[in-house]
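DATA SHEET
Item: assembly model
Revision: 1
Owner: S.N.
Input lines:
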Amino acid sequence: MAYLEIKNFCKKFGNTEVLKGIDISIEKGEVLSIIGSSGSGKTTFLRCINFLETPDSGTMILDGETLFDAERDKKVKESALRTKRLNFGLVFQSFNLFPQYSVFDNITLAPLLQLKERAKKDKTIDYSEEKQKILDDAEKLLAKTGLTDKKAAYPCELSGGQQQRVAIARALALKPKILCFDEPTSALDPELTGEVLKVIRSLKGEDRTMIIVTHEMGFAKNVSDKVVFMANGVIEEEGDPKEVFDNPKSEKLKAFLTGINNKEGE
Amino acid sequence: MNYLLLSAGFWEISFDLLIGFFETLKIFSVTLLIALPLGLLISFGTMSKIKILQKACATVVWIIRGTPLMLQLIVVYYGPGLVFGTGAGLSAHVSTYITFGINYACYFSEIFRGGIQSITKGQYEAGYVLGMTKSQIFFKVVLLQVIKRIIPPMSNEIITLVKDTSLARIITYYELIFFAQRYIKNGGLLWPLFYTAVYYLVFTAILTVIFNRIEKKLSYFKA
């Protein structure tokens, strides 16, 4: 069985069927890219994985544990949702940093809150030692994302690319099993996308399992182990990136890739 | 009425009006003490998913914002006596505090609601995917951003309150304007009434400085 196994995810908003039965499996350390035009359901799918939306049907098994089963999980308690969400990290298109916190505090806020909760329940936890660990980790993440000198800056003082790198560090600070990206460079000026993609690429080198929704075709081709092309709520085509990009089989994917190439040629 | 007042000079009248101003200040402070927390509760009510609660709160806000504060004062002060006979009812002070408290709570609630609803969904979602609870998200992430956004409309409303306090005079709450009008009634001394403007102006100037400071303090981030 694969590390992450999703079967038959369906989601409706009102009468609109956004996901019509998505199956996906990823091995540990693999990078999966999801491509497709706007409205194809990529983002909704990612939000379902992250428990921001609840699929109407389907199952999700991560590392042998059934995290979601539509039959079983009609109503999930808020506290249970939190634990489930923590298996995943999500980097948003619009960064969503907390504006009133410095770069460093953005990264450490959630881990420190969790530590406080744990320390309250379990008195054996050495609070100051654990806290130091979180702070040290944050320093390392800053170094990894090239933001050490921006540690004390506030989000409004950063460029889009820097903000997105903070968002990546913030997601990594919680050590998610799978890190998801929702069009991480779509809100950035073209000259800033490179620095963000470089960070994501460096994460691949660490054998992180990642799911990336992206419009950067070149990047998807280079960094992914597997590419999925979505259209109208179904997986139209999937496979090895070279195969998918150089040898598209379905008409929709051909049309999609041609459209993108034309745009890039403009 | 103290007829000695008529022979009083500028400083004595200034001091007398200062006592009247303390009454004004009392209305101002008690109103804020009631209206700030109550306004937050009402704003939660108007944003509630429970339809009945939401409709009830919206109706209260509509009635309070849709009728004159002066009328509300009269209803609260004279209403119980008219319905249940003389002797029933509240003192001028208590009536004033209740009416002003509820009235301003309704206005504040709309400012709070606007502020809370203006925070993007992304802030909540970022909190969720970081495993934060709803209350952690509200208090650690959203609240300060809301405060920053509502400072300008709140300062507007609070400065309006300073001057609205003079309405309490009509249900015999002896505040600054009332103190000044005694001089007209008891000897035709007109200038103290006009002079009360100075008290209001100085107080609103102080409030303006305070609000500007808060705004400046929160200017280190954009939200």
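QC remark: Helices of chain B lie at 10-46, 51-66, 69-84, 92-117, 121-129, 134-164, 176-185, 191-217.
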